[in-house]
Specification:
Strand content: 25-35%
CATH topology: BirA Bifunctional Protein, domain 2
Number of helices: 5
Helix content: 25-40%
Number of domains: 1
CATH class: Alpha Beta
Distance between the termini: 8 Å
Order of helices and strands: EHEEHEEEHEEEEHH
Strand order of the largest sheet: 1-2-6-10-9-8-7
CATH superfamily: Bira Bifunctional Protein, Domain 2
Oligomer: single chain
CATH architecture: 2-Layer Sandwich
Structural class: alpha+beta
């Protein structure tokens, strides 16, 4: 498996690279994981824009946030600086994975990465993604779950596209522009959780890459 670091790249440019990688893998090339960051962008899935996009497009342009209709699954989400994005391009049959078990595998890779950083994380049977325990609600002693990583994929001709996004040092105010993934729950980041103990972006990227290789390399 090839891990390729694309640095910071606009969403549409990364999408074009994914499409070429998809064609290459279909033709027999080795699987790839594209690791990158995006400039600020809000994307929505194949179902089109919904009421979960809370901000008019002219206001998004003023804020320097691009709006893109993607062909992935899932609802509206935000990508931006400080968010570690990974797009695996691989043949699911090579790993005996169904689309559902593939998504669960991505969740497991994220949970393992966060565990290495001392952050316990978990899945939610009612929502795709990875969650952590957050500060208690104002009038409650119960902790609420906050989303730290989102997953949205497409499987075409048995080969995956799109992938996951982990909030490392993301400016979480951007998520106020949307209802992330259509869920009225908080969003968090490693920086918010760990403060001065938060790892560098490069360290998180290295850990995530290591877990991709341990999971998928044959």
């Amino acid at each position: 498996m090839l891990i390729e670091d694309l640095g910071t790249i606009p969403y549409r440019d990364a999408w074009a690279i994914q499409e070429q990688a998809h064609a290459d893998v279909l033709a027999g090339a080795e699987p790839r994981v594209l690791i990158l960051q995006h400039p600020p962008v809000i994307t929505f899935g194949r179902r089109g824009p919904t009421q979960h996009l809370l901000t008019p497009e002219p206001r998004l342009r003023e804020l320097g946030v691009e709006l893109v209709e993607s062909d992935r699954g899932g609802d509206v989400t935000f990508h931006g600086p400080g968010q570690l994005v990974a797009y695996p391009i691989l043949r699911l049959a090579d790993y005996q994975l169904s689309p559902s078990s593939y998504v669960h595998t991505l969740e497991r890779i994220l949970i393992q990465t966060l565990a290495d950083l001392g952050v316990p994380a978990h899945t939610d049977p009612a929502a795709v993604g990875v969650w952590v325990n957050h500060a208690p609600l104002a009038n409650s002693q119960l902790a609420t779950a906050a989303k730290i990583a989102a997953i949205g994929v497409r499987i075409r001709r048995g080969v995956s596209l799109h992938g996951l996004a982990l909030n490392v040092s993301t400016d979480l105010r951007f998520f106020d522009l949307i209802t992330p993934c259509g869920l009225t729950r908080p969003v968090t980041s490693l920086t918010q959780l760990l403060g001065d103990r938060s790892p560098s972006f490069a360290d998180v990227r290295s850990l995530l890459s290591r877990h991709f290789l341990a999971t998928f390399a044959r």
